[in-house]
Design a protein that fits this description.
The chain has 15 helices and no strands. The two termini are about 30 Å apart.
């Protein structure tokens, strides 16, 4: 498949993935009307695992390196295990729309973590934008009033923020693993690990089982298992394997916009003027963080070739070979970026 065509398919896959993820918050709110959070997450993982059972013969053809086992397990522990612990409980206390705005900070958190965990260069404007986005998230949480569907927005948004921290760990490890394993296999590992992780949680005294299974909440769990756990994660893992990490995380910015629309359309959620201003501050922080500064235009190909020819004839390696910037390294080293010690 041509490289350009592969990139278009990856972009399309990422758009579908984030659209499905945006619907997660709305569907979770519908399921929480009847089901306990632990029951919901186990159910979606169990449904996904059943679907993946038919692909086990195919997975056996891909050997897993021993040194990668710990990273795959850590990736699955971050997401779906701990991620859904925080997110499912977050949706008890906050609205789908507000949770979607907290997700908007994920790309900035990825950039900041890349500086400290991966040693990548991060521009001051990225840090500045991150601080503005966090301030907007705090304002959104403080300014939100308690309602029947969001009794404690501050607690719920904080739990969603912790879920985003888990997502950072997941995406950091995922980028390295997609260079060695297929997106389908990685998604299956997440589903199986999530099922095993959540099974003992069903025995906790705090876990409540429903007396009856209503149709829409039950279908919500099936939707989460097939369309989100398999569909969204599979598509995102595929896109991550075809595009640089800094490009794939940028697509997450679509989630809050889609979530607000779905929350209004399906759940009847609305934003006050103050909440709109706080949400705007979050998006402003995201926008500022994307300012990469002025980039120098590359000379035409013919000029590059002429320079190389002149270099070769003179025997010198000095003409215009500069230290590679992190962004150019990302492009050159794809698909194994970001560089890490995994």
């Amino acid at each position: 498949m041509p490289l350009q065509e592969s990139k278009y398919i990856a972009v399309f896959a990422l758009i579908i993935a984030v659209s499905l993820w945006a619907s997660t918050f709305v569907v979770l709110k519908m399921a929480l009307v009847v089901f306990d959070p632990n029951v919901i997450i186990f159910g979606r993982m169990f449904v996904a695992s059943i679907c993946f059972l038919f692909l086990i013969p195919r997975f056996k053809k891909t050997p897993i390196r021993r040194q990668d086992i710990k990273w795959l397990l850590l990736m699955a522990f971050c997401e779906p295990c701990m991620y859904f612990v925080f997110e499912s409980h977050a949706m008890i206390y906050t609205s789908a729309s507000q949770a979607g705005m907290i997700v908007a900070m994920l790309p900035l958190m990825m950039a900041v973590s890349a500086k400290f965990l991966l040693g990548e260069d991060v521009r001051p404007m990225t840090i500045f934008g991150f601080c503005i986005a966090v301030a907007g998230g705090v304002w959104l949480s403080i300014g939100a009033g308690s309602t029947e569907s969001s009794p404690d927005p501050m607690l719920g948004n904080f739990l969603e923020f912790l879920a985003m921290c888990c997502a950072v760990g997941y995406m950091t490890i995922l980028k390295k693993m997609t260079s060695r394993y297929s997106s389908v296999l990685i998604t299956a590992i997440q589903a199986f690990a999530g099922t095993i992780f959540y099974l003992p949680l069903l025995a906790l005294p705090s876990t409540k089982f429903p007396e009856n299974f209503e149709l829409m909440p039950t279908l919500s769990i099936v939707y989460l298992g097939i369309f989100i756990t398999i569909g969204a994660y599979g598509l995102y893992n595929f896109g991550m394997s075809r595009l640089p990490a800094n490009q794939t995380t940028a697509f997450v910015n679509l989630i809050p916009v889609i979530t607000i629309f779905l929350g209004w359309l399906i759940l009847g959620e609305t934003f006050s003027i103050q909440e709109f201003m706080a949400a705007g501050l979050v998006m402003l922080g995201v926008f500022i963080s994307q300012d990469r500064g002025r980039k120098k235009r590359n000379p035409p190909t013919s000029e590059k070739n002429q320079d190389l020819m002149n270099t070769g004839s003179s025997g010198s390696l000095t003409p215009s070979i500069k230290a590679a910037s992190p962004s150019s390294l990302d492009t050159a080293s794809s698909p194994s970026e970001p560089t890490s010690t995994l």
